[in-house]
């Protein structure tokens, strides 16, 4: 009987774990999305049907209590809309994969090969079969950058709008890898300006949905904090006051366990999401992603060790960074009001090139509104 060495066994176990990691996290993510939707719905339903009627008694006459009840109801529906729309956009918007760059590279390679074959055919007066797209893609995947002839490189370079020929290749998927892109092992794809893979939205946070993720964390922390604030007096009255001293008279159908669970969850989530949102907002203000923060700290440490100073080329100033992130192209305060409207808005750039200090100085068309 042949036994494997311990190192080989551990290596095989590691490979198996890597193979099942992605499907497991994606399955967990689908469940967490359902949990999030149920939680948002439950908090909104409880607020409108239980909390507000208990805090503000209804009356046939127009009173301060009635006005406050309708104002709070309107705000609850509004914040629920902001949370729900941005959560949906987080989940449904692709973060930006490099598939289109791979397709562009395949097209360039295919055209260059076709033109080269046609030239050879004309010279040799013989017909040479052209490569199919599938065979070209297979060739590109297994070919290292620079593995073309000088004639092919010159031919491809004439029509390369994304600059894929000069890009590095991902060591996992072999796709062209633009700056700020990273390979997600869960999605098994390279993601443009990848921040992290979030199981709560069952999606990566990248170039095309980072704006929605930021708004979702902001509004979710506000919404859960608002729920806890409005329910605190009821919570204290029911669970810490003696029955004869209670101020609120709860209906007979009141489920204390469910109310307690929602109150504790909303309080904990307001703190957790608030912390996550604050950290994410700090990264946005400094033009970094969660992945880039670690790299930048290392480069800053190395620069100091050699007597230099590290400069983040994407950091164009706090307010400009925020405007670029949210795609606010006006300096007027009215531009920020767009964040209060739940809608889809495309980010700045195509996920290949980004706003930099140098591009602002040169006055690139993409960044002209942010100078």
Automatic annotation (TrEMBL):
EC number: 2.3.1.225
Catalytic reactions of this protein: L-cysteinyl-[protein] + hexadecanoyl-CoA = S-hexadecanoyl-L-cysteinyl-[protein] + CoA
Span of domain Palmitoyltransferase DHHC: 168-294
Lineage: superkingdom: Eukaryota
Coiled-coil blocks: none
InterPro entries: Palmitoyltrfase_DHHC, PFA4/ZDH16/20/ERF2-like
Any Gene Ontology CC annotation: membrane
Keyword annotations of the record: Acyltransferase, Lipoprotein, Membrane, Palmitate, Transferase, Transmembrane, Transmembrane helix
A matching Pfam family: DHHC
Membrane topology designation: Multi-pass membrane protein
GO molecular function annotation: protein-cysteine S-palmitoyltransferase activity
TM stretches of this protein: 28-55, 67-89, 212-239, 259-283
Subcellular location: Membrane
Family, as annotated: Belongs to the DHHC palmitoyltransferase family.
PANTHER family according to UniProt: PALMITOYLTRANSFERASE ZDHHC16 (PTHR12246)
Comment, domains: The DHHC domain is required for palmitoyltransferase activity.
Protein name: Palmitoyltransferase
Protein's organism: Rhizoclosmatium globosum
Lineage: Eukaryota, Fungi, Fungi incertae sedis, Chytridiomycota, Chytridiomycota incertae sedis
């Amino acid at each position: 009987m042949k036994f494997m060495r311990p190192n080989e066994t551990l290596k095989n176990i590691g490979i198996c774990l890597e193979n099942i990691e992605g499907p497991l996290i994606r399955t967990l993510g689908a469940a967490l999305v359902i949990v999030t939707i149920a939680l948002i719905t439950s908090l909104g339903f409880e607020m409108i049907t239980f909390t507000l009627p208990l805090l503000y008694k209804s009356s046939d006459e127009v009173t301060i209590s009635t006005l406050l009840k309708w104002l709070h109801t309107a705000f609850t529906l509004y914040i629920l809309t902001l949370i729900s729309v941005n959560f949906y956009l987080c989940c449904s918007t692709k973060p930006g994969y490099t598939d289109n760059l791979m397709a562009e590279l395949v097209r360039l390679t295919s055209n260059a090969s076709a033109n080269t074959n046609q030239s050879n055919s004309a010279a040799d007066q013989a017909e040479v079969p052209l490569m199919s797209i599938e065979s070209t893609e297979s060739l590109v995947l297994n070919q290292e950058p620079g593995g073309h002839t000088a004639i092919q490189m010159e031919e491809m370079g004439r029509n390369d709008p994304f600059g894929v020929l000069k890009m590095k290749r991902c060591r996992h998927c072999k796709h062209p890898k633009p700056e700020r892109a990273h390979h997600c092992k869960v999605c098994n794809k390279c993601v443009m300006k990848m921040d992290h893979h979030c199981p709560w939205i069952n999606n990566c946070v990248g170039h095309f949905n980072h704006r929605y993720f930021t708004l979702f964390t902001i509004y979710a922390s506000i919404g859960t904090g608002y729920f806890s604030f409005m329910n605190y007096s009821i919570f204290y009255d029911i669970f810490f006051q003696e029955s004869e001293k209670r101020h609120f008279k709860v209906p007979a159908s009141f489920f204390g366990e469910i109310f307690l669970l929602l109150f504790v969850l909303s309080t904990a989530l307001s703190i957790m999401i608030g912390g996550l949102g604050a950290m994410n907002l700090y990264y946005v203000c400094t033009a970094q992603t969660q992945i880039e923060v670690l790299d930048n700290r290392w480069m800053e440490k190395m620069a100091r060790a050699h007597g230099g100073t590290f400069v983040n080329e994407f950091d164009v100033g706090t307010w400009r960074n925020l405007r670029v992130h949210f795609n606010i192209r006006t300096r007027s305060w009215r531009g920020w009001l767009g964040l209060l409207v739940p809608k889809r808005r495309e980010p700045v750039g195509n996920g290949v090139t980004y706003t930099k200090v140098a591009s602002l100085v040169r006055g690139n068309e993409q960044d002209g509104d942010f100078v």
